[in-house]
Design brief:
Order of helices and strands: EHHEEEHEHHEEH
Number of helices: 6
Largest sheet: 5 strands, parallel
Strand content: 15-25%
CATH architecture: 3-Layer(aba) Sandwich
Number of strands: 7
Shape: elongated
Strand order of the largest sheet: 2-1-3-5-7
CATH topology: Rossmann fold
Helix content: 25-40%
Distance between the termini: 40 Å
Structural class: alpha/beta
């Protein structure tokens, strides 16, 4: 029997959710024996041409045009999309910039900050354009399951994945939810 395929992406966040996934320790071996991890920062995969997967997992908010495109591609290629962590679920700390116009964020961050010597706002065409605001995943695409937390606990991630693999994806019990 073919293993269900899983893809994960790390958008605008700190990688803490993927680190929490790795903190499954021995349980991680069971998960990796049960699934085929396709596209993921864990596998150092950088070409976001997703194969058809059963589960897509997003970490991080959506802050650039490129991240928005990646998330839309992931949603299109997966049957079930999971938002991992507060950044994907709510937009997270990255949304602090939402109160300030984008051009002012760039000016303050690249020109006026004390540590910048002769700063300049990057304008390389290879750099993705910032969105006006950082968005939660569900503001861009349909999300099927949410695993909040900063980062979510390994136990919450394990519970979510176990439910999916057993064919009963469901919301986490209240006792497992934390928003810190």
């Amino acid at each position: 029997m073919e293993k269900p395929k899983v893809a994960t992406v790390w958008l605008e966040g700190c990688a803490g959710c993927h680190m929490s996934f790795l903190d499954l320790d021995e349980k991680l071996l069971d998960v990796l024996q049960a699934v085929e991890l396709t596209v993921s920062p864990i596998t150092d995969y950088k070409d976001y041409e997703f194969p058809e997967v059963v589960v897509g997992i997003v970490e991080g908010g959506v802050g650039t045009v490129e991240q928005e495109e990646i998330l839309k591609k992931l949603r299109k290629s997966c049957r079930l999309l999971v938002a991992w962590g507060d950044c994907a679920v709510f937009g997270g700390i990255n949304t602090m910039r939402n109160w300030i116009p984008k051009d002012e964020v760039l000016r303050c961050g690249y020109l006026e900050i004390i540590s910048t010597v002769e700063g300049r706002i990057p304008s390389d065409p290879d750099l993705p354009e910032l969105l006006d605001k950082v968005l939660a995943a569900n503001q861009v695409v349909q999300v099927d399951l949410y695993v909040p937390g900063c980062p979510p606990s390994p136990e919450a991630i394990a519970q979510c994945l176990t439910g999916i693999l057993q064919g009963r994806p469901e919301a986490l019990p209240t006792a497992m939810l934390h928003f810190d």
